[in-house]
From TrEMBL:
UniProt-listed Gene3D superfamilies: Bit1
InterPro entries per UniProt: DUF2000, Pep_tRNA_hydro_II_dom_sf
Protein name: DUF2000 domain-containing protein
Domain of life: Bacteria
Pfam families to which the protein is assigned, alphabetical: DUF2000
Length: 137
């Protein structure tokens, strides 16, 4: 089994509906992929030669926690100087990237209603950021 020095993790608020969890996860990991393209592996191909797009070359762990857990993890990540993607409650009511960015910009950092965040960094740092979160079931 390959050991990685870094960890990719998504933290979701524990009261989200199933469709929201899936939607938030998809949006958040796209931010990690954009910020760290070196995490993307090689393209796939099946036995017939059909080609498929590459994906992350390491696992993505998904966690859940309370709104307070998300707020704490958000602060810890920023305190460590990590750039993170976030998904706020308001983004469930917008329909495009421009409106999404405007919705986040309208709220001060300490008042963000976080639905989820993702983080990539050294394993130990990510573990400390996510302290108090549970592996998603």
């Amino acid at each position: 089994m390959t050991r990685f020095d870094t960890k990719i993790a998504v933290l979701l608020r524990d009261d989200l509906a199933s469709w929201q969890r899936l939607n938030v996860t998809a949006f958040l990991v796209s931010g990690i992929a954009h910020a760290t393209p070196e995490l993307i592996g090689k393209p796939y191909a099946d036995a017939d030669g059909t080609e498929y797009l590459p994906m992350f070359g390491q696992p993505v762990l998904v966690f859940s926690g309370t709104a307070e857990t998300l707020t704490t993890a958000h602060r810890r990540a920023l305190d460590r100087g990590l750039r993170i993607p976030i998904f706020t409650e308001e983004l469930f009511h917008t329909g495009n990237d421009a409106d999404n960015r405007a919705a986040v910009r309208a709220v001060p950092r300490e008042k963000l209603a976080l639905a989820g965040l993702a983080v990539h960094g050294p394993k130990n740092a990510v573990d400390k950021i996510l302290k108090g979160a549970e592996l998603h079931r």
